[in-house]
Design a protein that fits this description.
The chain is α+β, with helices and mostly antiparallel strands and about 425 residues long. The protein has twelve helices and 18 strands. Bound molecules: zinc ion (ZN).
C-alpha cells in the first residue's frame, strides 16, 4: 500500500510539472502581443537553460549539436541501441503562445520522469529533445534544427544564415547571451530509432468532435502560389460592362472555383489571405490584382486537384475576361504520412488512457516532417481551446496537457516494445 501511495504522489508531481513548467517558459519573451522567442535570443537560450536544468535534476545525460538542438537521455537496458526521441521546439513566432512547441519539449521531459516514477525500464534509451528554430524565427529557415539533424540541410548552411540585422546564426550561437550552452557535450551522431512529437492541435477538429487526443495521420502537403492578373483600367461610370476586362472580377471567379474544389474534396483547405488591387479606387475598374493562394491536404492528389482547378480557372478567366495572368509557384512540400506501426503504437497508448481519441491530419508543419526522413515517426495532438494558435491567447486545458503527457509516456513504452519485435 505504502509503495503504491508514494508512487501515486510522485506520478502526480511529474504530470503536474507540465503546467508549471510551461508557465515558467511562458514568461520568456512575453509582451502584450504574445510571446516572441526567436532562435538564439537571450529568451530562447533561457528556455534551453531551463530544459538543461530539468535534465540535470533528473540526472539525464545532456548533449547538444552544433546548431543548439538539445537532448536529455534516459538510459535503456541496451546502451548500444539507437534512442527513441520525443520532442518539439522552444522557439515561437513573433506573436506566439505558451504551448506551440514548448508543450512537446516539456511534455517529453515530463514523460521521461513519469517512466522513472513508475520504475518502467525500456530497452532503447529515450531522449527528450528540444529542436531549435522550427518557426523560422529570427533566421529564415523553418524546421532549422530538425532539418540539420536529419541531414536535409548542412550545419554550415544553417550557421551562415543571417537575421535581419545581418548577424549569422553562427555568430549568435557563439555569443554569450543567445549561444550554445556551456558544459554540455557535443552530440556526434544522429542515430534515432523512432520519433514521437506531442503538440497542441492548433485547429478546432478535436474540440468540435469532443475528442481529447488526436492520432495524427499525416502532415499536410502544402503549396503556395502568387497569382497576378492584368486587365484594363477605366472609368467606373463610362466603360460598358460588355467590353471590360476587370482583373478583380476574374480573381473572384478563380477564388470561388478553388474554394468549391477544396470543399468537394473534403480533407483539403485553400486560402487566399493576401490581395492587392490597383489602382485601388472606388471609381476605377481594377487593372491589376495580385493574390496569394495556399493549398493544403494530407493527400498529395488532393493538392494536385486544387492546383489543377486553379490553373483551369485562370485559363477560363483569361479567355472570357481578356485578362493576362501570371502564376508563380512559391514553396511547396509533399505530405508526410506518419509511420503506420508508430501510429498504431500511439493508438494503443491513447486507448490505454480510456479517453476518446480520433485520427486527425495536421494542417501545420512540424519538426516531424524532417525526422521522417531518417526514422519512423508519429504525432499526438491535444485540443486547442477555440482552435486558435500562433497568438498569445493560445490555450489548452491543464487536464488535456496532463493527458497528453500520460499518452506520450505510454506511447514511448509501446514504441520501445514494437521496435524490439
Ligand atoms: Zn510547433
Amino acid at each position: 500500500m505504502h509503495a503504491i501511495g508514494s508512487q501515486t504522489i510522485r506520478r502526480r508531481t511529474a504530470i503536474s510539472n507540465v503546467v508549471e513548467r510551461l508557465a515558467q517558459l511562458s514568461v520568456l519573451g512575453r509582451y502584450e502581443g504574445g510571446i516572441d522567442r526567436g532562435l538564439a535570443t537571450p529568451q530562447e537560450r533561457a528556455a534551453r537553460e531551463h530544459f538543461a536544468g530539468w535534465a540535470r535534476a533528473n540526472k539525464y545525460a545532456l548533449s547538444q549539436d552544433r546548431v543548439g538542438n538539445l537532448f536529455a537521455r534516459r538510459e535503456g537496458t541496451r546502451k548500444d541501441a539507437a534512442p527513441i526521441l520525443a520532442g518539439s521546439h522552444l522557439d515561437t513566432v513573433k506573436t506566439g503562445g505558451a504551448y506551440d512547441g514548448a508543450y512537446g519539449v516539456v511534455g517529453a521531459m515530463c514523460a521521461l520522469e513519469l517512466l522513472d516514477a513508475r520504475n518502467i525500464v525500456t530497452e532503447h534509451p529515450i531522449e527528450a529533445t528540444a529542436w531549435v528554430g522550427e518557426e523560422g524565427s529570427r533566421f529564415p529557415l523553418g524546421c532549422l534544427g530538425s532539418a540539420v539533424f536529419a541531414g536535409l540541410t548542412s550545419a554550415e548552411h544553417a550557421l551562415a544564415l543571417c537575421d535581419e540585422s545581418g548577424a549569422t546564426l553562427g555568430d549568435a550561437l557563439a555569443h554569450e547571451t543567445g549561444g550554445l550552452l556551456r558544459d554540455v557535450p557535443q552530440r556526434l551522431n544522429n542515430n534515432v530509432a523512432g520519433y514521437v512529437e506531442l503538440h497542441v492541435e492548433q485547429g478546432p477538429i478535436l474540440e468540435r468532435a469532443g475528442a481529447r487526443l488526436g492520432i495524427v495521420t499525416a502532415i499536410a502537403s502544402q503549396r503556395r502560389f502568387r497569382i497576378t492578373l492584368e486587365g484594363e483600367s477605366g472609368h467606373a461610370g463610362t466603360v460598358p460592362m460588355a467590353i471590360r476586362s476587370d482583373s478583380l472580377g476574374a480573381a473572384a471567379e478563380i477564388i470561388l472555383a478553388i474554394e468549391s474544389t477544396a470543399r468537394k474534396l473534403g480533407e483539403a483547405v485553400v486560402t487566399v489571405g493576401r490581395m492587392t488591387v490597383e489602382p485601388g479606387s472606388t471609381n476605377v475598374i481594377p487593372a491589376r490584382v495580385s493574390f496569394s493562394v495556399d493549398m493544403r491536404s494530407p493527400h498529395d492528389p488532393h493538392v494536385d486537384a486544387i492546383e489543377h482547378a486553379l490553373r483551369d480557372a485562370i485559363a477560363r478567366a483569361t479567355s472570357t475576361r481578356g485578362v493576362r495572368a501570371s502564376i508563380e509557384a512559391l514553396e511547396g512540400r509533399n505530405a508526410t504520412p506518419m509511420t503506420p506501426r508508430m501510429r498504431e503504437a500511439v493508438r494503443r497508448a491513447a486507448d490505454s488512457t480510456g479517453e476518446r481519441s480520433m485520427d486527425v491530419p495536421s494542417g501545420a508543419g512540424h519538426d516531424t516532417m524532417c525526422i521522417a526522413a531518417i526514422a519512423p515517426v508519429a504525432m499526438i495532438f491535444v485540443p486547442s481551446i477555440g482552435g486558435v494558435s500562433h497568438v498569445g491567447v493560445e490555450k489548452t486545458s491543464d487536464a488535456d496537457l496532463e493527458l497528453g503527457v500520460e499518452t506520450l509516456a505510454a506511447a514511448l513504452v509501446e514504441v520501445d516494445r514494437d521496435l524490439r519485435a
